[in-house]
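Sequence only, no structure available. Ideas?
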Amino acid sequence: MGMTRSLAVGAAAAFLLPVTAQAQTAREADLEARLRQLEGAVAALRAELAASRAGPAVTAPPPAAAPVVLGSSTPGNSPNTSVATPRAVAARESSVGALAAAPTTDGFRIGDTTVKLGGFVRLNVISSRYNDGEVAVGGLGKEFYLPQQIPVGGGFASRDLLFSGRQTRLVVSTATPVAGKVAKTLIEFDFALATAPAGAQRATNPYVPTFRRGFIEYGRWLVGQEWSTFQNLAVLPETTDFVGPLDGTVFNRQSLIRYTAPLGQGMTLQVAAENPQTETALPNNPALVDTDKDRLPDMVARVNWKAGFGDFALAGIARELRTSTNGLEDTTFGWGVSGSGKIPFGARSDLRFMATYGQGIGRYLGLGYVPDAIYSPTTNRLARIDNFAAFAAFKHGWTDTLRSTVSASYQSAEYPTGLAVTGLANAKAYSGAVNLFWSPIKGMDAGIEYRRAVRELLSGDDGVMDRIEFAIKYGF
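Reply:
I predicted one. Tokens follow.
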């Protein structure tokens, strides 16, 4: 009886083993099919993410991958006939969102918008000597080269040492595909031009952030606050100073509406309507007066030309200068032209330059070294000031990480005849500088610079500044 039972069990086991093996083989085949589906879905997700990172252009969605069945499957289902459950669709959308929001080397994603953070942290150590007076407490002339704050007539020499991190900067930019184009925005601020609160250096140095730039760019249009179209920022030389050749350059940021059009042959045309602001002074007082009575925008046009031997720009500006006080007003026409360029010499060296001439463009040069015009209340006359400014800078790369720049800059003003203008008015400013920069690692620059600058008044009196400045910056 026992032997009979054992034979029966053995026969049953022999009969069931092929069935079990066949069942396991079917399940393995089903699992392999599911794995192939998952791999296809992951590949589709990666393709979508790569396409979104590759460029801002809006593209058609890729062909739908075979839906993934995360629940149980019915017999006979193949990868091409499976039906995704709502849970599978939700999981797929969640995966796409998680991957798109993950940080990348080009920023991070929020929906369809790519957001990037940038800027730098910077420290300046500035040692200055003035031969004819001292800069007022909290004066911006202590922190960067500002020719109008070089003391004249003090009758004594002075020295000053300052450590400052106020030039640290933060930039936030976005790019969003909209109707086949990319809508871009940028917001930038630092702490450099805020008025230092009294006693700021005593304990905490709490400087207020200052707005630098903020604009929207879509297609050929740019609206917001940006560098003036009259300025060619690309030719400014490398310097430890906030600007460098300030007396010889156009330097202005303001609200504007700009249109850019390609002209072919490496040329583009930019046309802009920009914020008007007439700066005047009285014949007996050189202090600038913000009249704030303007009616027409400053109109600017600039042609940019990229050639094999360099990059060049030619800009022109037309302005209405206007003042109005107690019902008395006067207007006059202001204009200016500016040519600039950068010519490379080998892979490490280049020559940069700018020359500007005009009448009534004082506020565009050297942060308003001279006013746009002189206003005489007795005659109700608004008379333009003639301006000329220029700079040149040569950069030489000693090695891939070591380089120097030598620069010189100049500005002069010719005041209108027939007005008894005070001898305290600024007439000329000129400076020269030489520096050495080192980049030990990617993103980090350290430099030391010597600058000598002269401010000359209409009376002929002048003041001299000698400055040694060290700066270290790490950009991100």
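Confidence is low (pLDDT under 50) at residues 1-24, 55-104.
Hope that gets you unstuck.
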